[in-house]
Design goal:
The longest helix is centred in the first third of the chain and has 14 residues, at 3-16. Strands 1, 2, 3, 4, 5, 6 and 7 form a 7-stranded mixed β-sheet that branches. This protein is an alpha+beta fold. 35% of the residues lie in helices and 38% in strands.
């Protein structure tokens, strides 16, 4: 693993997607991402740092009390990396699991693709997520 790029991916999960304060998150996005970065998830494409910050803010607002956790170390192959993660209530079984695939450019993330392995079957609000978690 390229330690620097692997650490960058790990910081992304914990300090970008795991950061609820928009100002702090914006600062870290500025460190980790290229200016014209892209974020892809099923059915959605986000372009630029500010749009990424807003998207992450929306994800976190929809799931109060949920945290992102690493599910292993990042693996890097030249200018690509992958990292598995969990998302759910702190200390509990994750409600969502997934993997990020990053494309790096000059030591920063230029594209990030999020793949969901296990996602809530009930789409909607936080109450739906909490109900699913409680049923497990």
């Amino acid at each position: 693993m390229n330690t620097t790029l692997g650490q960058l991916m790990e910081r992304n999960v914990l300090e970008v997607f795991g950061e609820r304060d928009s100002g702090r998150r914006k600062s870290v996005i500025g460190e980790l991402y290229t200016e014209d970065c892209t974020f892809f998830e099923a059915g959605d494409q986000i372009i630029g740092r500010d749009a990424l910050n807003a998207k992450v803010g929306h994800i976190l607002e929809e799931a109060p009390g949920f945290v992102f956790r690493l599910a292993g170390q990042a693996e890097v192959n030249h200018d690509h990396g992958r990292l598995r993660w969990h998302f759910g209530p702190n200390g509990a079984v994750p409600v969502v699991t997934g993997m990020d695939v990053a494309v790096f450019k000059q030591g920063r993330i230029c594209s990030l693709y999020a793949f969901l392995d296990k996602a809530p079957t009930i789409s909607g609000n936080t109450e739906d997520l909490q109900k699913q978690h409680e049923q497990r």
